[in-house]
Design brief:
single chain, 254 residues, alpha+beta, 2 domains, six-stranded mixed β-sheet, 6 strands
Length: 254
């Protein structure tokens, strides 16, 4: 399945615009980096799959040093038309990435065919992405997977309506894929996004198991959870925040 058209015209950018960011008139933000995430990136998309975009924008020095800098909720722009898009200001994005947020980290390891905007500053972020990885991924990936399992268990009543079964299968696939990605990060020092056919088949199988029996699903995932916990890690124990700050200042042009 081919990729859908990007949400903004990419065109050919002059060097000055590549330094500042590609200005996006839909959000009034200079976008540094943006890509297609979710099932398309994982290699698990089907005809009814949504197309989701995640990206990074950069505030100006005047914005960041004023009385109303874009921090917290104001640092994130969300659009739902024509596709779901979420853009984080680069400072917020870096903070979330350093905390090993699984969704955020995925943007930094997308397959090349999923990037729709990569400016010079965006390339700098990608080149420096390793500074965000630490053994914190053990707890964030496992923690998120367990929270999804508990969420699904709370609504399990033994009889699934069609739409509820579909949602449970989707959650099951997502949890399985998340654990594969976390294990890969600990073992290889990179976030696994695009799955191979065997991994896709396993995730789909786990989704069906989740819909049939959440107890069986949870038991089947225990070896993968234990592997993330027990695998010898190639990652540092902690993030080097000095290195993260240096990268951020570089991207901001400070």
């Amino acid at each position: 399945m081919g990729l859908p058209a990007p949400p903004i015209p990419l065109g050919t950018h002059a060097s000055s615009s590549r330094r500042r960011g590609t200005f996006d008139h839909m959000t009034d933000r200079p976008v540094l980096l943006e890509g297609i995430v979710g099932s398309t990136a994982y290699g698990m998309a089907h005809a009814d799959s949504d197309t989701d975009y995640l990206g990074v924008w950069r505030a100006t020095t005047r914005q960041m040093t004023g009385t109303r800098p874009p921090v917290g909720k104001s640092a994130t722009v969300v659009k739902h038309e024509p596709h779901d898009r979420q853009l984080h200001e680069v400072g917020k994005f870096f903070a979330l990435a350093a905390k090993a947020n699984p969704t955020i980290l995925e943007l930094l390891w997308l397959p090349d065919d999923c990037y729709v905007t990569v400016t010079d500053a965006g390339r700098r972020i990608l080149d420096g992405r390793d500074v965000f990885l630490s053994n914190l991924v053990r707890s964030t990936y496992i923690g998120y997977a367990r929270s999804q399992i508990e969420r699904a268990k709370r609504r399990e009543d033994g009889s699934f309506a069609s739409d509820l079964r579909k949602r449970t299968e989707k959650h099951g696939r997502h949890v399985a894929r998340l654990l594969l990605s976390g294990h890969h990060a600990v073992e290889h020092g990179a976030v696994l996004v695009r799955l191979d056919p065997m991994q896709v088949a396993w995730c789909r199988q786990m989704g069906e198991m989740a819909a049939d029996s959440m107890e069986d699903f949870e038991q089947e995932l225990l070896p993968t959870i234990e592997a993330i916990d027990n695998t010898d890690s190639v990652l540092p124990d902690k993030v080097d925040y000095d290195a993260v700050d240096e990268l951020l200042w570089s991207v901001r042009g400070v």
